[in-house]
Structures are given as C-alpha cells and as structure tokens.
Amino acid sequence: MSPNVSQNGNKKSLETSGSIFEIEDFDVLTSLERPRPVSVERVRSFDERSFSELSISLSPRAFGRNSDSSTHITDHLEYPLSSPHRRSGFNTPGSNCHFESHPLVADAWEALRRSLVYFRGQPVGTIAAVDHSVEDLNYDQVFVRDFVPSALAFLMNGEDEIVRNFLLKTLRLQSWEKRIDQFKLGEGVMPASFKVLHDPKRNNDTLIADFGESAIGRVAPVDSGFWWIILLRAYTKHTGDSSLAELPECQNGMRLILSLCLSEGFDTFPTLLCADGCCMIDRKMGIYGYPIEIQALFFMALRCARLLLKQDGEGKEFVDLIGNRLHALSFHMRSYFWLDLKQLNDIYRYKTEEYSHTALNKFNVMPDSLPDWVFDFMPSRGGYFIGNVSPARMDFRWFCLGNCVAILSSLATPEQSAAIMDLIEARWEELVGEMPLKICYPAIEGHQWRIITGCDPKNTRWSYHNGGSWPGELLLLSFSSNHGRI
User: Fold this and answer.
1) In this predicted structure, which of 10-14, 102-106, 278-282, 329-333 has the lowest mean pLDDT?
2) 175 in a domain, yes or no?
3) Distance (Å, rounded) from C-alpha 231 to C-alpha 149?
4) In which domain of life is the source organism classified (predicted)?
5) pLDDT, tens digit, for every residue of 12-53?
6) Residues 288 and 343 both lie in one domain
7) In a domain, 160, yes or no
8) In terms of Cα–Cα distance, which of 295, 291, 298, 289 is closest to 257?
9) Long-range contacts of 365-372, Cβ-Cβ distance < 8 Å, separation of 24 or more
C-alpha cells in the first residue's frame, strides 16, 4: 500500500507500509506531505528579546538529526567530563561554549552560586529556586532530581567536591528509617529532597529529609534513586576516580535501590509500576501505571549500575539480574511504547477481545480511544515513545524527559532516536515555539483537566506540569540531538 493520510469528517484513515526499524522506509515517508500543525491556544510569558538572542543555537536545524556536531553524550557519561578552562573555585564559571560572554550565562551562574546550600561549611547541593517574590513552600530544599543539571554544570566546571558531598549526604539519608504515618517505606528509598536547619545558638547544622511524608500529596519519589545512580556514574567518569563508587556504603546503596525495582512480583511486564506524582511530574496528572519517564530512567540507571557494581558475590547476582531486565525492558519499550505513522495505522485497525499469546492487540486497546489530536500531531517522518501503556490504555501524550533519556540511554534504537529528533523538528512550533521546551504535549483542559488533575490550579493548561515550559529540558535535548549513548 502506498502511504496515505486522509480525514473525512470524524472518520480518519491511515495507510502506510514499512517500519521505523527499516532504514529504507525513511525515503518512502519523506515523500509524504506533513500534517498541518495542531491548532491550539498557548499562553506565553517569556522575555522574547532575551530568547531571540539565543535563537540561533536553539533552531530546529541545530537539533535536527543531521547535525554536524560530533560531540556525543558518551563524552559526558562514558568519558571524563572536562573543559580546557577548568577551574576549582566557586567564583567564576569555566566554560568553552560560545555563550561564555553572554550576560544570560553570567546571570545563570550568579543565580546558581546564590542557590548553594551548605552543611557544616561544605556545599552539599542547590535549593530548588531562588525567588523571594512568592512563599517558599518547599522551594528552600535540595531536590535530588532538580540538583542533577546543576551537578553536571559543576562537574564540567571542575567543581567535583559539591557533587561528591551531595552523593554522600543523600546516601546517608537513605539509611534513615522512613515512615509515613504507621507505614514503613522500603529500605532503599532515596529522599525526594532535604534541607539544612541551622541552630545559631549551638552553631550546629542538621539535615532534614523528606521521603514523601511532607510532600504535597504524600507521594514517595520513585525517580530519586535512579538519578542518584546516574549522577554517581557521571561523577566517576568525570573524575576518573572509582573510589567513591567502590565504597561499601555506595555499593550497598545501589543494591538497596535495585532490590526495590528488580524484585519479582505479580506484574506481567518488565516495566516499573509507578503511582501518579512519584517522579518529576509530582502532582496528579494521570501518569499512573508505567510512565515513560520512569521507564527511561529505570533503563538508564540499570545500565549505569551494571558498570558501577563490583563483581563480587552480591554484586555479581545483581549484575545478572540487570542483564536479564535490560533485555526484556528494551524489547517491551521498543515494541509497545513506540508510535510512528505505521504503528498509528495499526492501532487504528486493532481488533479487540483477542485471547491468545498470538494476539496483536496485546493490551486490548480500543481504537476509539485514540485522541483526535494525535492524527494531526504525528508527522509523516518521525515518531516518539508515548506516555504510558497499560491494559486498555495508551497515553499518547508527548513527554520530553522520557524521550530524551531514551535516546541518551540507548533505550531507543538509532532509527528511533533519529525519528524522535525528526518529530521535534517537525513540531518545533508546538513543542518549543518562542519558549523553552514543554515538559509534555498537549495540555489537558476543561472537564478532562478537572477529572485528571483534581482541579489543580497550579496545573492549568500550559502551566507547570500541564504543558508548561521547562528550560532545564533543553540540556537533555541538546545532548540528545547528537544521538549520544551511554
């Protein structure tokens, strides 16, 4: 069949041939006219003048799959992070990028310095936000996930001590007894955040951790442990020193995290079950089940842990478990979470109520559940990992973090990585536009927003988690544009 996309009233039909896994299909799909952009109303609030000054480096061509850049993410995770202008002090940023003299860069480093948190005279992280115009709430804490981009900046600037201190302090907090009301959490759970309380009378500092007992919604962090392992790997490769990772405490900390996520249970899938709000999207947003962010981070952390664990008795056992899980997880994600024009066509024609191991519609997804916007959003060449797959449910929303981490961790095949970047380029106006990258797309609104978010005023459409723009995601996108690998 020749590729064809048509719309007649409410009836949509898609016909195509080939697969994203066959490289020759790119030539076929290129001949298609790209579907029109999704017509949506967006709320923008950004300094257009400042952003336009950086627009050259953030153009679709700069992030396209044909980028001339030869730098790969392996330079950041497989090989030591370095800069020809490395400096050990905390006063001046060392950077070899062409924005070094740009005032935005200087302002960013100044804000980063002001956000540093000290414990007994040593820097241990950065607070979530430096903004005194609003009530602090929990912004005065060091969040594990939020510190990771700051940690990478410090590493590339030669400031290893901050990252080492952070890794050791969070590891110490992991060993604390964790209770929410009368329930005891798993031993390997890492804190979502921590703060330093200073007693001026005794001149003493105390660490206070939050494992979910104080969090909004009382959600435990599933992703914190994964980020910790990934950052430990980045630190080890940057410094070239494996002594920190080889400490018995670090080895045990990794094994405790892995014990939680590799334990056998009732689940029939290799993906990791996750409640709503237990990751970067830490409020109710309908991502319960098997969200792409957690699966991609899970995969990346497993790969990092396999390189960091000692091949001793316990370590060897976990390395074997990791190998088996990686094989099953990569097959599952590449097969069932991947969506391109051909797969969209197949889902549209799914039969339901199939009972056998040969069923094509393995999750009994109803074709009528496909949202109208996905037909307009899917370009003729490109694809992405959808937000969630579980029985009778496919969340077709685009989630930036999960897709970028899928590229960086090699969860995505080279062909899928190129297709993800093709989609971002084709849908640049929707996903980036005149603002930093959106955390997800499209935003949910109206009655659906009321049901899914519980009328959360912070997550109105195009705000915060609900299609909000997150500048930090541009770091992952820039790494992903080179199709790097761990």
Assistant:
1) 10-14
2) yes
3) 10
4) Eukaryota
5) 343 333 332 332 332 322 333 333 344 444 443 334 343 334
6) yes
7) yes
8) 298
9) 365/392, 365/393, 365/394, 366/392, 369/393, 369/394, 370/344, 370/396, 371/396, 372/12
Q: What range defines the domain where residue 161 resides?
A: 84-263
Token reading at 174 = 């992991």
Task: State residue 483's pLDDT score.
Answer: 54
pLDDT, one tens digit per residue, over 210-232 is 998 888 888 889 999 999 999 99
Contact between 384 and 419 (Cβ < 8 Å):
yes
C-alpha angle with apex 379: 73 to 269, nearest 5 degrees?
65
Q: State whether residue 447 is helix, strand or coil.
A: helix
Distance of alpha carbon 158 from alpha carbon 91, whole angstroms: 12
Residue where a domain terminates, one of 237, 263, 289 = 263
Tokens standing for residue 217: 């919604």
58 pLDDT higher than 70: no
pLDDT value for 140: 84
Q: How far is it, in rounded angstroms, from Cα 281 to Cα 464?
A: 9
Please check whether residue 192 is in contact with residue 224, taking contact to mean a CB–CB distance below 8 angstroms: yes
Name the token pair of 189: 């759970």
